[in-house]
Design brief:
alpha/beta; seven-stranded mixed sheet; Rossmann fold; about 220 residues
Length: about 220
């Protein structure tokens, strides 16, 4: 199972949030965001570390990555095997949360950049209903396979997507295309665009906190 950092705020957490970092970072990357969310209820945050692997676009340098990136061109081959292996590893973390007593529909998959891509891929194919997906500065990987592989259990999953209008790493157009692909399959996307680069803003953090609060109040 993936090594992970855990932060639990309050007793009897009402949500579990498995939050995946971006390329070259690690599980510590989003630790500081926890108090900034200003949540007034207990949450168990799980911040796993991606495996270390060579990344083609970075000259084969080994770093923490959820999958290899062969190129940024939209025609570049995607690392399907790497994406699916990371999705399986994240599913193990979901299994553990359920074994701890957290209902599946109280588990959120979240991620930034590469981590957000894995969160989207995993959640939309998960056979058990999840609470939601938080996809930040990211895109939909293996989009062509989703129609055949998606799970009916998460057809109506709450989906928060946010992106920077000035993102030089993953252009806004890439995220907008992903949003349109999701909407074409009848997913309801809560879309947010912010004047920022490949990063997270305080306005975005406030919106995430409000979104998580609304999820916790459901059912």
């Amino acid at each position: 199972m993936l090594d992970a950092i855990e932060i639990t705020t309050g007793d009897a957490p009402r949500l579990a949030v498995v939050w995946l970092h971006g390329l070259g970072a690690d599980g510590h990357d989003f630790e500081p965001i926890v108090p900034e969310l200003r949540l007034r209820f207990g949450v168990r945050f799980v911040f796993p570390h991606a495996p270390v692997r060579p990344v083609t676009i970075n000259g084969g340098m080994a770093m923490r990555a959820w999958y290899d990136i062969l190129g940024f061109d939209r025609r570049a081959t995607e690392d399907s095997a790497g994406i699916r292996a990371s999705a399986a590893a994240v599913t193990e973390l979901v299994d553990r949360e359920i074994a701890r007593g957290m209902p599946s529909d109280r588990i959120v998959l979240a991620g930034f950049s590469q981590g957000g891509a894995i969160a989207l891929h995993t959640a939309l194919r998960e056979s058990r209903p999840l609470a939601g997906v938080l996809a930040l500065s990211t895109y939909l990987p293996l989009a062509a396979t989703l129609a055949l592989e998606r799970s009916a259990a998460n057809a109506a999953i709450p989906l928060f997507m946010a992106h920077g209008t000035d993102d030089p790493v993953l252009p806004l157009e890439l995220a907008e295309n992903s949003r349109r692909a999701l909407e074409a399959l009848d997913y309801a996307v809560d879309w947010h665009a912010y004047p920022m680069a490949h990063s997270v803003s305080m306005e975005e953090i406030g919106a995430i906190g409000a979104w998580l609060t609304a999820l916790a109040a459901r059912g």
